[in-house]
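I hope you will forgive my troubling you with a question about protein structure. Here, with my thanks, is the record as I have it:
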Amino acid sequence: MRTAVIGVGNMGSKYACLIQEGQIRGLELCALTRVRGVYREMLGKSIEAGVPVFESADALFDAVEKRDLPLDCVIIATPHYSHESIAVRAFGLGLNVLSDKPSGVYSRQARHMEEAAEKSGKNFAMVFNQRTLPVYRQIRDIVKSGKYGALKRVSWVVTDWYRPEKYYRSSAWHSTWEGEGGGVLLNQCPHNLDLLQWILGMPAKLQGFCREGRYHDIQVEDDVTLYMEWENGATGTFISSTGEAPGINRLEISLEEAMLVCDRGVLKIGELYPELGMKEEEYRKTSDDYFRKIQGTWSEASVPAADENPYKIILQSYADACLGNGSNIADGTEGRKSLLLSNAAYLSSWEGRMVEVPAPGSDMEKEFEKSFESWLDRKKNEGKE
């Protein structure tokens, strides 16, 4: 399939090089946009062979409309705000779309992308590459199996996203509400928020505490704490930052009959039944040992090694889905869920209250969209002052 990579920067160049080197079965690199400096050197082989380079997505799409550029697929790796307009126009031209995370800045953008994809009948996928990691796939399988019962509590501390000040100066669109639309929640944490809902389901409501410019001279947040509640009464916390070192990545999931602990990719499981000989609820209701500290029976799970290039898996699954030979690792509809979580976190923090997370497609969702976008416009205006 004839493929264009739109936005050849840090991530777009990775995707383009995978296709250029023939590592993705079924995809042929046929067009690029905005290739500069070192990225032009990386893709020199394709450019010298005649792959055209366009100054913008619009210029590329104009060529498609004029039938000067035959295409089947586009991969979007541009700044966040532009994902919606590029995807919608691509679907309108009958093209398949793979979008880098996040789907956009606000959930309405993701909804519009989904609607355009459905209308076109074309394949829509997201680059949520951490879904390919065996440890998270195994955790999800355990939770979804129900083997250890329902969720009680989750705690995820992800502070290994450390960034120096110069990182935020590396691109003009970074670290402003107008250019990027958010900070650590929108730039780094879409992966974690996606995994959170993919493994545990969407929380019903949350309270966000987003501290803007705590560690860096930026408008947007670089330190976040979320408190969440699920429909079954389970609770959770999510903490992230780009200003803490040394950082950690530790996920703890408390289920009715076990504790799962994933620390830097190592998964340990603490089961209750081998020690108690009965369900925890039964023990809790019948035991007369007032002060027993239940230790659990711990074992380290056998987790396959992660693939050296998870992006290759994402692109291959996208190609296979487009050709009818498989399915996406992350369907395009998944992009709206992580955006709803980050949007809810911002709205909650700005308003200083717990907010409900709307279900996609509900009447509540559109009211939520209006509230969030009104606040975002206010933040943009503050940033211009």
About this structure: The mean pLDDT is 96. The longest strand covers residues 221-229.
